[in-house]
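so my prof wants the structure for this chain in the tokens format not the other one, which i didnt know existed until like an hour ago. anyway here's the sequence
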Amino acid sequence: MEQSRRLPVFLITIFCLLTLVGCSLQTGLPEPKVPVASRVLDSSGRLITTIGEYNRIPVKLEEISPYMRQAIVAVEDARFYKHPGVDPVGLLRAVYHNIRAGKLVEGGSTITQQLAKNLYLSHQRTLSRKVKEMYYAILLERYYTKDEILNKYLNTVYFGRGCYGVEAAAGKFFNKRAKDLTAAESAMLAGFVKAPSIYSDPGNIEAARKRQKTVLKRMYELNFIDEKTLKKAQNEPVNIVPVPPHAGEAGYFIAQLLKQLDEVLPGGKDILYTGGLEIETTLDLDMQKAAEEAVDMRLKNEDDELQAALVAINPANGYVVAMVGGKDYSQSQYNRALAARQPGSAFKPFVYAAALEHGFTAASTFFCGPVEYPQFDNKPYKPTDYGGGYHNRYFTLKEALKISDNVVAVQLNVQIGPRVVADLARRLGIKSQLKAYPSLALGTSEVTPMELANAYAVFAGGGILAEPIYFTRVKDSRGQVLVSRRSKLSRVMDEKHAYIITDMLKSVFEPGGTASNLNINRPAAGKTGTTDNYHDAWFVGYTPELVAAVYVGYDKDEKGQVRIVGTGGQKAGPIWELFMSKALSDKPQKEFTVPKGIVFKEVCTRDGLLASPASTGVIKAAFEEGTEPVVYCTGDVNWQKYPRLFDEQSNQIDFPAEIPWSNPILRNRNFTNKRYRDHRF
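here's what i got, hopefully its the right format
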């Protein structure tokens, strides 16, 4: 093992020596590169915004605080004044530590090498770039003094938020000149250099303070500051001037996009501010505008503190086409489209989808009446329906979902098994923790609007799960593709079951459904969601080509208090309706594709059996072929239309030819008129 460690160290040493010899034979430096902002495009190639404010104010070395100079040298290159541009000691030490750790934990670049990279090279992590970096570093040392190199470095190094150089950073973050920076402020800025996009982010202030303490400790160890200065700096409050967020179009989407790019781009998020990249996103500017307008218009007369979120996905490819995380990104960067809240009844479709996989049909019936289950600490859980009561009658599953019956949903959840339901929801894209309780059916476990939109997209997409993505391709300034992304598609549900759920959710818009007040003038399916005491309102709905989840509610304050919002149909539904109407205004109407093996039957809502022309209480439902009812219902005959069906003298039923009843019970048994009229079958 020891010998295997020595070999890379030996090779690195030989490599460094050869580089030094080769550089001694070369002369000349290229033109310094100029930072270029990156362009963010929507899915049609239209410009959304640019990333990369170029803010640089050159100053002389004597115009920079001595603490700042010491802090940079201490944390970035303690042997700066001792090496010729490339530090073999530091390089070998880094190699040794990386080998021991089994991963990259320490870099070996000197300040001169970093300057060479910033001036002449890209951020790509390749061996050829490293060789050029070392070569240019040695040339820089031949042309300039150490103080000149340090001055150039401090004037060009990136500190985050578009700031190049310490003068610009001092003004941006502390509203002062670089010469006036204290030891504490200098250590804070020097700490930014390691990862500007992370440490300069106001949301990561604790990480920045931890990094600051590391810099101060290193300054003390190198005798740059004494113990008194160290303690004073450690206790000095450092107040960073709030940096205004990107307040342009699609702020919430852009923020999430940058977060994702930071994980995949060579050089991280920082290259966005300098590399002149072209980022092709999944956003549709027209749909984004429709989403922002829908939220603004529906909430403009509401309480100022009431917030909303909307996320829209193309179910065919997982493209996130619109995202609104709140009423105003410039006022609040908290992205509610990615925040977990209880979804209420918007979770119910997953219970019904699990039921289909376990042999139930849209015509299976459950009774809405008092039931009791153990839940928390063996305390009984007694679900009630809307308003706290019960319907005290049977429902088919389709009608129960249409009117959002709570008791039926809980019974179904318990009978299938809450863990089975939770597993199905996770399979459909829900990543948040789901508690396998009877009340899971009523959305008591928190999920995000993004998760719900993604999971409902499985229904819209015929059982195919498409991983949500924010960008498709990133190209550098020369047009070369740096990274590309396509959504992972996987079948997670039988297409017939997905369609049956869609058929059930279409009825939510029909008279008597919880969203009967909504109409987008095209085939659509959806579900309302309202939490206990009307604290959160949801609507998740879709057409064949677009899925959108809407959340409306108040942010919880420090005391965890929540306020009344209203029902999903009243508050979230109208936002969804306005968005979908605008987003699809130029798209032709499209029907949901009916898979092979699906049949439609009219059934009685009372017992789920086949309806006859004489039946009342009828609902049309979709079935997987072979699971549809074959027996006609008996309890909902319209006796006013057929007053003479029963012959009292013969005590027999007279079946008119137009009523194709085939129920063997009716054919083979005698009934009294009273029992017929009382519907006791």
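also thought this was worth mentioning. The CA atoms of residues 376 and 437 lie 9 Å apart.
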